[in-house]
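ok trying this again, last paste got cut off
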Amino acid sequence: MKLSASLRPGIDQVGYVDYNVRDFHSYDTRLGATYNAYLVRDEKVALLDTVKAPYAAQLLRNVSSLTPLDKVDYLVCHHAELDHAGALPAMVQACPNATVVCNAKCKEALAGFFDVSNWKFQIVASGESLSLGKRSLTFVNVPMVHWPESTISYMPEEKILFSNDAFGQHIATSERFDDQYDLPKLLEEAKSYYANIVAPYGKQTLKALEAAASLEIELIAPAHGVMWRSHIPQIVQEYQKWASGQYAPKVLVIYDTMWQSTELMAEEIYAGAVERGQALAKENPLAERFDVQLMHARKTTLTRLAAEALDAASIAFGSATLNAWLMPSMASVMAYFQGLKFREKTALAFGSFGWGQGGPEAIQKNFEALKYHAITETPIKAKQRPNEEVLAQCRAAGAQLAQAAWERFLKDQA
């Protein structure tokens, strides 16, 4: 579907709204996605990024509706990933006078995807500017936000930051700006995007935010989702919080169960955390925001689990034992979280078993790789059904997780 919006006179968004995509390399895009490309028409004409390859024809139509294709001078590539650069070969072929502008690492990455032997390149270094006439683009390399060749660019004359994957969201919508979309929902999707895509590179993101802090920005134009013009301080503040790994007073109980034994344990851990959170709220008004969530791993997407885990200070992981190992959904959770490299959590392993053990023990062992601090040296376990003693242990552990989450939160606030 056509995506178009005017950012400024002579600057238009010409990408594609994908209402139907539901999986973005394992990211659950329940709201669809956009692939944003920006056309700047000045003394020189520049197209900033492209779209996924299947939508190249639509991009060509969008660009050609605004300028003849042989008048395009530059094809700027901020990032070689195929949701940004997939249609670049089609644009190179259709725009005979265009030069591909990117950094050296990006050229190398593009050569890994495409035959670029006949492409015209202009390599730009970080801090270098490209004049388009009355306007210009200044490039800043932001390596590992979230690929080695990632770049952002700034147009000082219009105070526009073309932010690549930073500040993006996966939302398919006809509204193109932040003040046209429900702000709480928008921030929720921006957080989910950060948690699932950018989170492993928090240190690099903080450096990028520092580089952007000196810029006067009136509009942020990301590679995905809506553009920011009315809530820029708020989204920048949220990014600083996420990138620094600030804890919220939050406890998650994530589990999978076979015959409800592990579920009974999870419910007691949840109840213990809720009770402690309510008690804390009576002592300190800040604890009124205390959040405890019970999440069945097989009935919740990895995408949502990661978004909630981003700022959770404490997490309990539970699994029934299947073939002397974890339930498959919990194995996926543990592997996914390891890759996302969230800040250290206070953690608990628990679960049930029948004739053979292994599930809860595997969780406990995973805490080493995750660099999580376990509140018990061994998992809380139940053979077949949890008895009253085991359920009491679970409830007490839930309270302990809540207390630890509160203390971590207060330490961050100090």
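PB: full thing came through this time. The radius of gyration is 24 Å.
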